[in-house]
Amino acid sequence: MMKRKGIQAALLAGLLAAVALWSGGVMMGARHRAIEAKQGLEGVQRCALAIEALRDRPTLAADRERLDGEMAGLIEKQASSLGMSRPARISPEPPQRVGESSYKEKPTQVALRGVTIEQAVRFVHALCAADAALNVKSLRLTPPSVDNPAGKWSADVVLTYLIYSPRNSE
User: Fold this and answer.
1) How far is CA 157 from CA 46, 72, 78, 102, in A?
2) Under a CB-based contact definition with an 8 Å cutoff, are residues 124 and 139 in contact?
3) What phi and psi values does residue 161 have, to the nearest 5 degrees?
4) In this structure, what is the dihedral angle of CA atoms 46, 51, 52, 55, given to the nearest 10 degrees?
5) Where are the alpha helices (DSSP H) in the chain?
6) Cα gap 166→100, rounded to integer Å
7) CA distance 108 to 92
8) Is the Cβ–Cβ distance between 106 and 66 less than 8 Å?
9) Is 137 a residue whose pLDDT tops 90?
């Protein structure tokens, strides 16, 4: 009988130890998830602050659509100042309403041929620095072909700017 109680006590002690180990593992996992959640929350809070700061910045919008020659002149001037050849194509597109807002977005497509990646990036940066209202909507780079040992790329850029255009003025 004593031997049986000893075995039961040992089994009970072993079971309790297993439960304690399992509980410790569960608690460590919960602690790890809580730390990750806290870090995620801090990241989201930083993003929210950045969004608020951007929201407080004034929106730069033109009160009229620029003449096609104005944009082309600015684009060609920046390309020339960087020692690049003239863009292969400058194609203004019609303005598009931005959602239900009082703004329209005016895109202009620019095709650069035979440029290095550095030249393409410097070109886009110089344009945006020269005119704070300009934004780069997209920049698509096409690698040089196999038969082009100079490593010159093609870059297709879509530049945009906003135009203030209340809906009732259409």
Assistant:
1) 31, 13, 14, 25
2) yes
3) -145, 160
4) 170
5) 2-56, 68-81, 117-130
6) 10
7) 4
8) yes
9) yes
Rounded distance between C-alpha atoms, residue 53 and residue 164, angstroms: 22
* AA identity, residue 91: S
pLDDT-derived band of residue 79, with 50, 70 and 90 as boundaries?
Answer: very high
Both tokens assigned to 169: 């003025």
Token code pair at residue 35: 């730390």
Tell me how far apart the alpha carbons of residues 159 and 90 are, in angstroms, rounded to a whole number: 10
Contacts of 132 (CB under 8 A, 6+ apart): 60
HSE-up (13 A, CA, CB side) for residue 61? 16
Tokens representing 32?
A: 């790890």
Give 12 or 64, the one with higher predicted confidence. Answer: 12
Determine the Cα–Cα distance for residues 166 and 162; give it in Å rounded to an integer: 12
**Residue 40 pLDDT more than 70?**
yes
How many Cα neighbours within 13 Å face the side chain of 60?
9
88 phi/psi in degrees, rounded to 5: -65, -30
86-136 confidence digits (pLDDT tens)? 999 999 999 999 888 888 899 999 999 989 889 999 999 999 888 888 889
pTM for the whole structure: 0.61
Backbone φ, ψ for residue 79 (5° rounding): -65, -45
